[in-house]
Every structure is written in structure tokens, then in C-alpha cells.
Amino acid sequence: MKKMLTWGAVGLLTTAFLDPVIYSMLGLPIPWTRDLLMLAGGAGCFWLLIRFRNDF
Fold it and tell me: Element (H or E) spanning 41, and its range?
């Protein structure tokens, strides 16, 4: 469970920050709703890791 939450937090946060950069380099409109959802999901995984750090 800890590995899944770690991968989720790292993957979602990295994608949320790099996705607008890639879309702007391609000249496409940035899907802000998807990026904000990925940011929220990554932050949620990170919060769960901190909240239950002694249980895993």
C-alpha cells in the first residue's frame, strides 16, 4: 500500500506540473480541469502517506 501511494503521489504530482509545460510547447490549449484533478489526487496520496505513516 505504501508503494502504491508513493507512486501515485509522485506520478500524479509530476504529471500535474509537467503537463501544462508540454501542452504549451505544442501550442495546444491546457486542460486545467484535468491538471487540477491530478494535482488534487497527488496531494491526497501524499496526505495519506503522512497521515498513516506509522500504520504502513
Answer: helix 32-51
